[in-house]
Amino acid sequence: MSPPQRTATARRIAELALPALVVLAAEPLYVLVDTAVVGHLGSVPLAAVAIGGTIMSLAVWFGTLMAYGTTGRAARRFGAGDRAAAVAEGVQASWLAIGVGLILALVGVTAAGPLAGLLAGDPETAEAAAGWLRIAALGAPGLLLAAAGNGWMRGVQDARRPLWIVLGANVLSAILCPILVYPVGLGLTGSAIANVTAQTIGGALFLTALIRETRELRPIPSVIASQVVLGRDLLIRGAAFQVCFLSATAVAARFGVAAVGAHQIALQLWFFAALALDAVAIAAQSLVGAALGAGDADEARDVARRVTLAGGVAAVAFAVLAAAGASVVPGWFTPDPAVHAQAAIVWPWFVALLPFAGIVYALDGVLIGAGDVAFLRTLTVLSALLGFLPAIWLAYAFDLGLGGVWAGLGLFTLARFVGLLLRWRSPRWAVTGATR
């Protein structure tokens, strides 16, 4: 067996980052297509997708947690020269994905009405969002299986198979969405069916790849339990994100249908940019984990330096593109002038925060690859409690509109930016060994 590649050259980072970019961008790009298709049905369906999509982001949160945790564990074992043990992490993560996915699907189907009612600003939007969610929730098992598959494949530095699986599933769904919504005439229901189709097909393809990779497929409760325990800090960190974004959507909804529609457009563009910028962070998770698993702390620090620079440069490029499209992009999603007016309030915040976000997401990847998730947990929770949440609820109390909501996002991002830079400059994150 050939040893894993651990040289943190720009070429090696690009070989891992570019396929990861397509994988990361595929889902939010599909959501943007979905938002544009539904947006032309009217402001209520657009607001319904905003509410339902925000609730479904809980499943995406679990998926991100699973992918990142599996990548770090698999990468360290791969770096220590044990590919079989790295793949075994993927087997156990897949069992965990099936269990959690079924629970999330059941909750989504049975509690769609109350969940949508908590976030929606009016009964019509709540009813439409609940109908969308009852169908979309069925995609949760496939979504989490795909996340587990991405995790172990990234850990063994296999960037090509996730690329083709995710791209194929999402392209099919992007074709189905406008067909089901318009010519077939299913409207908002067609959007939900297209979502489920992409997630189920993707999960099935990742599971097939795992079965071809290894015959040792039995669940091992002790390993699954270890993954759950070691993922505790990522879970808390993810919970802080979800509380922030659910609260932001709830507050935006209280400012009216146009406000929540504009917030949905800007927030999905933010997620798209953030996940695209996270491509170098995915490379960092794999390379940092492998380097530390092989006992090479200097290599891990070199990866950290390179991806931080790359993240900052890429984010500036995104910000320039976003600024240039300020008067055009909202029109891609809806013809409603009220939504356009609200989007104009959000846009300066969106553009200004992107460069900081690029560095934040890159360093997130470094520390996740290093297994330094306890620090990430604490930093994220404090940033949420002291920055994001007070700002957006004050925005609601004083009727500050979407500008106040996005000021909270700004405080959240800048607090994490400062904390991550300080941690990056310290030696405490670069702990070597096959496990941490």
TrEMBL record:
It is found in: Cell membrane. Its main location: membrane. It is a multi-pass membrane protein. The chain crosses the membrane at residues 12-33, 45-68, 93-120, 132-152, 164-186, 192-211, 234-257, 269-295, 307-333, 345-363, 375-398, 404-422. One of its GO terms (cellular component) is plasma membrane. It comes from the Bacteria. Signal peptide: none annotated. Keywords: Cell membrane, Membrane, Transmembrane, Transmembrane helix, Transport. One of its GO terms (molecular function) is xenobiotic transmembrane transporter activity. The keyword Ligase does not apply. NCBIfam families: matE. Belongs to the multi antimicrobial extrusion (MATE) (TC 2.A.66.1) family. This is Putative MATE family efflux protein. It comes from Actinoplanes italicus. The lineage of its organism: Bacteria, Bacillati, Actinomycetota, Actinomycetes, Micromonosporales.
